[in-house]
Amino acid sequence: MPPLAHSAAPISLAADERLRWVTRAARLLDSQFRLPGTQFRFGLDPLLGLLPVVGDLSTTVVSVALLLTMMRHGASGAVVVRMALNILLDTIMGAIPLVGNVFDFAYKSNERNVALLRRHYAEGRHTGSGKGLVALLLLAFLVVAGLVAWGSVALLHWLWQYFEAHPVLNA
Q: What's CA 109's distance to the chain center, in Å?
């Protein structure tokens, strides 16, 4: 799809057909349902979060798909990073048993990301792309993951040699 055309008038996210599904998906995940007798809204994200691993993973995958769509349609690097941090916070906190379930009901990362994109569009800065910054962040993540893996192997090697040189006496 071609990038969104830049114009002087702000573009409404709901009016742009190419991004309308982003708004719908964010609403479905974060605020589709209302608790009867209250104004409290929730979506599928906290409900799926009740399923260990599979639920949190599935909502994270959908959130990342929304982020990639927003990137393709002109979100700047700074906005993409803020969106990714929202998803990361939601994923990490959502993975904690019990606390994560409550957090998923309160923290609506997808709607926060749609609001970020709407503000970005309203400011008229939606012609760029965050691909370069996301690639840099991905590279940094891979470097950190590689260092953690290398450190883990080095620690295990050191422990192996230590216990080989200093055997533990059997009782």
A: 8
